[in-house]
From TrEMBL:
It comes from Peptococcus simiae. Its EC number is 2.7.7.60. It catalyses: 2-C-methyl-D-erythritol 4-phosphate + CTP + H(+) = 4-CDP-2-C-methyl-D-erythritol + diphosphate. PANTHER family: 2-C-METHYL-D-ERYTHRITOL 4-PHOSPHATE CYTIDYLYLTRANSFERASE, CHLOROPLASTIC. GO terms for molecular function: 2-C-methyl-D-erythritol 4-phosphate cytidylyltransferase activity. Keywords: Isoprene biosynthesis, Nucleotidyltransferase, Transferase. Catalyzes the formation of 4-diphosphocytidyl-2-C-methyl-D-erythritol from CTP and 2-C-methyl-D-erythritol 4-phosphate (MEP). This is 2-C-methyl-D-erythritol 4-phosphate cytidylyltransferase. Belongs to the IspD/TarI cytidylyltransferase family. IspD subfamily. The record marks 14, 21 as: Transition state stabilizer. NCBIfam families: ispD. The record marks 154, 210 as: Positions MEP for the nucleophilic attack. It comes from the Bacteria. The lineage of its organism: Bacteria, Bacillati, Bacillota, Clostridia, Eubacteriales. The keyword Transferase applies.
Length: 233
């Protein structure tokens, strides 16, 4: 069975808000409830697990309700200190019949059904499938003093998004191995790469912004309108 893990246990430090950025207003709801709304709309049959920050279970449950999801359809688990910890804890708690999983940042609310469909189809070819977009700016390496070291050839560089799609068994094993080895990563596909698994890329969605810094919120509101996702999902 395919399940979806939604990560919501961060602190939102770069946003600089009072609390967790996932509860900031967006599109008449909150960032998290919009994310959940769009998952419900795009993958109505998929069971969900939401990873929440200690002390935020009640507000996450409110976002689940606001998204029109039946509370009994959503598993809740406490996250860890880092994103990688939250994913490892989620994988360890998945129902036994979840053999494939989409792991998604709750901070990416503009999630369209066609992207999820592309990722799931890719699991017929690989144990890991990730959405990517080409880099459109020039990229340079810069030293600690702020001077350019070199310009990087951007032809083979891509920006990576979530959801990321996986066969559960290998990813769960690699997360445990990474914990033992002290290997830290910023996305889950990096663990599959580190342990020799092929990672397939599919076209990402330019509207699938991660709400990270203050400037991302008005952009997300614009993308919400442009994406065709109904605000009243
Ligand atoms: N310990 C953590 C850290 C992050 N996340 C989630 O992972 C996603 C991507 O992380 P990021 O955008 O970095 O969120 P934060 O860690 O909250 O942001 P910051 O690094 O600015 O504190 C977010 O939906 C966040 O809630 C999580 O579930 N558990
Ligand atoms: C997983 C991710 O969204 C892929 O781009 C990104 O690595 C998350 O980084 P963050 O610093 O945890 O937001």
């Amino acid at each position: 069975m395919l399940g979806i893990v939604v990560l919501a246990a961060g602190r939102g430090k770069r946003m600089g808000a009072e609390g967790n950025k996932l509860f900031l207003p967006l599109g008449g709801q909150s960032v998290l409830s919009l994310t959940l709304c769009h998952i419900r709309a795009g993958a109505p049959a998929c069971p969900l697990m939401v990873v929440y920050r200690p002390g935020e279970k009640a507000i996450v449950q409110a976002a689940i309700n606001e998204a029109g999801l039946a509370p009994d359809r959503v598993l809740l688990i406490e996250g860890g200190a880092e994103r990688q910890d939250s994913v490892r804890l989620a994988l360890a708690a998945l129902p036994a019949d979840w053999d494939r999983v989409l792991i998604h940042d709750g901070a990416r609310p503009i999630l369209r059904a066609d992207l999820m469909a592309r990722l799931v189809r890719g699991l017929d070819q690989a144990a890991a499938v990730i959405p990517v977009l080409p880099v459109t700016d020039t990229v340079k390496m810069v030293d600690a003093a702020g001077y350019v070291l070199k310009t990087v050839d951007r032809a083979s560089l891509y920006r990576v998004q979530t959801p990321q799609a996986f066969q559960v068994a290998p990813l769960r094993a690699y997360h445990q191995q990474a914990l033992q080895a002290g290997l830290t990563v910023t996305d889950d596909a990096a663990l599959m790469e580190a342990y020799g698994e092929g990672v397939l890329t599919v076209a990402g969605d330019p509207y699938n912004i991660k709400v990270t810094v203050p400037a991302d919120l008005p952009l997300a509101a614009l993308y919400l309108k442009e994406s065709g996702l109904c605000e009243s999902d």
